[in-house]
Amino acid sequence: NEYQRQVAARRAPAYQHLRRTLQHAIENGSLTAGQALPGERELARLLALSRVTVRKAIAGLVADGLVTQRQGAGTFVAERIVKSFSALTSFTDDLRARGLDPRSEFLERGTGEVTPEEAMALNLSPGAQVIRYYRLRTAGGSGENRTALALERTVVPAEVLSDPALVENSLYAAFDKLGLRPVRALQRLRAIAFDAEQARLMRLPEGSPGLFIERRTFLDDGRVAEFTRSFYRGDAYDFVAELHTE
Ligand code: 16G
Fold this sequence. Notes:
Low-confidence stretches: none
Distance between the termini: 53 Å
Number of helices: 8
CATH class of the largest domain: Alpha Beta
Shape: elongated
Number of domains: 2
Bound molecules: 2-acetamido-2-deoxy-6-O-phosphono-alpha-D-glucopyranose
Helix content: 25-40%
Mean pLDDT: 91
Largest sheet: 6 strands, antiparallel
CATH architecture of the largest domain: 3-Layer(aba) Sandwich
């Protein structure tokens, strides 16, 4: 109840108290999407707190995806990322368009023999070689303060991408460099809850809501270029699509 919450808040370190206060302000709309937070020095002075306390509270909000920091410009209340559900864009494209510095952290990267499930998804024969990536996708922020937005498992036929090292940050940039042209994709989406392992990687509480999106992308020559299973943060994205009558 409210009393217990207040007692707990008073016992918590100052930075956690400030973090929670700012979180409530964002959640109840007193601070709105895109709004700039006062600077670190200004906040510290207004609230009679140390700058270290303010910095720690803000780092927590960045990790929660509630605010974003732009180099030189300051800290802003995060806006949800509006993403088309019908455009064949990449994670990197989507974030660049919003001025958010996208990056890939490779959790796994390697080559192997295709599994039966992958062979079906990629239209490959048994025994074919594939390249696999497991990536944590983040948006920046300066330095340590990056927000994890998605986990992605990608499988690409080795006949499409000859070497796993060809992907530095962006898969679609690698396709582009090689002159490969993705023209069409099939996508399915469903709601999930992040399991313990995923939640740890995403720095989210276990069971946080997510969107599972599976995409098979085709090249202009008809080959399947990728089979990707993405787990996007449920609280960070709005998917939109334009619909037409048949
Ligand atoms: C997006 C795609 C994913 C693709 C990735 C490539 C969705 C739901 N999924 O996350 O299938 O592999 O972009 O991004 O949009 P990259 O070029 O930044 O590696």
